[in-house]
Design goal:
The structure is a single chain. By secondary structure, this protein is of the alpha/beta class. The protein has a domain of 217 residues: Rossmann fold, CATH 3.40.50.720. 37% of the residues lie in helices and 16% in strands. The strands form 4 sheets. A 7-stranded parallel β-sheet has the order 3-2-1-4-5-6-11, sandwiched between helices. Strands 7-10 form a two-stranded parallel sheet. β5, α5 and β6 form a beta-alpha-beta unit. The longest helix has 22 residues. It is globular and about 55 Å long. The two termini are 15 Å apart.
């Protein structure tokens, strides 16, 4: 089921994308799918590669998108798809911190070796810029808030370690091979079409599925952990803004978030209220390995380098997301 976007992308000054060939890896997934739709709206010629392991099926992509089912572990296919592209938006990855703890080798093979493959294809094709979906998980449990990009990375899970390694690759390829890159450190992206249908679902998707079906949501830990929940249009915006920067970005990490901290307990209450089930209070279970306690982004660099400011606030985005799940998951 598609969702009406909250953002009119045509109102932004992004005319340079019209007629431009681009590749979105993981473009049938949650963030990649929203990005691919925005790029088509702006007149880009979009190719998507996705192995559909993330739960999407490509049905939300517009007919103008060339969809190829395949993996970033397939070097020959990547070389073919990247050829002729001006920009590559590298969104493909195996997600979920808990699953990465269970399957570290698989995560390394896809998330790190796959990223190397994307960069090599971009180098051969002389792509102008590769924009990478980095992660706030790289900060680990450093208690200092807000998180600034100058902080040392401290990954607490194989997934986070993958993302840190990928950032290093992005920087190395920019300096060694002239493939410019940008690392957008996403903070807890949410929105319509985020899959709730697996054991590792993101918290907002998982809460929505429970509440829509009249069940109490499950919180791992005491619920006082907090996150900088960021509506998906903000992540899309950051990717689009990165295409209009003329000077080299050289793999610089850039926080992409809302700059507001919300506890998981607060989130559960707001969602229960929005769905008309205030009586469905959370069930608490043991804290999970690799989970970070608090997360909040400093957005100074994003504003300075990209001209980024959030265009959809947390509560506006949450209301839109809950409304979508209410219809999409209708019992």
């Amino acid at each position: 089921m598609s969702a009406a976007p909250l953002t009119d992308w045509t109102r932004l000054s992004l005319d340079h994308l019209r007629g431009t060939r681009v590749l979105v890896t993981g473009g049938a997934g949650f963030i990649g799918g929203h990005l691919a739709n925005a790029l088509v709206t702006l007149g880009a010629h979009v190719t998507v590669i996705d192995d559909l392991s993330g739960g999407g099926d490509g049905s939300s992509l517009p007919p103008a998108v060339k969809f190829v089912r395949g993996s970033i572990t397939d070097r020959r296919l990547l070389d073919e798809l990247v050829a002729g592209c001006r920009f590559v938006f590298h969104q493909a990855a195996l997600g979920s911190v808990p699953r990465s703890v269970e399957q570290p080798q698989l995560y390394y093979d896809v998330n790190v070796t796959g990223t190397l493959n994307v960069l090599e294809a971009a180098r051969k094709a002389k792509v102008q810029r590769v924009t990478f979906a980095a992660s706030s998980s790289c900060y680990g449990d450093n208690p200092t808030l807000p998180k600034t990009e100058s902080m040392a990375t401290s990954p607490l899970s194989p997934y986070a370690a993958n993302k840190v390694a990928d950032e290093a690759l992005m920087q190395a390829w920019a300096h060694s091979y002239g493939v410019d890159t940008a690392c957008l450190r996403y903070f807890n992206i949410f929105g319509p079409r985020q899959s709730p249908d697996n054991a590792y679902a993101a918290v907002i998707a998982a809460f929505a599925k429970a509440l829509v079906f009249g069940k109490r949501p499950t919180i791992f830990g005491d619920g006082e952990q907090s996150r900088d929940f960021t509506y998906v249009d903000n992540a899309v915006l950051a990717n689009l803004l990165a295409t209009r920067i003329d000077k080299p970005l050289l793999g610089a990490p850039i926080n992409i978030a809302c700059g507001i901290r919300v506890s998981v307990n607060e989130l559960a209450k707001e969602m229960a209220d929005l769905l008309g089930h205030p009586e469905l209070t959370p069930i608490y279970k043991e804290e999970r390995a690799g989970d970070v306690k608090h997360s909040l982004a400093d957005l100074s660099r994003a504003n300075e380098v990209l001209g980024y400011k959030p265009i959809v606030g947390f509560r506006e985005g949450l209301a839109s997301t809950v409304s979508w799940y209410k219809t999409a998951l209708k019992p």
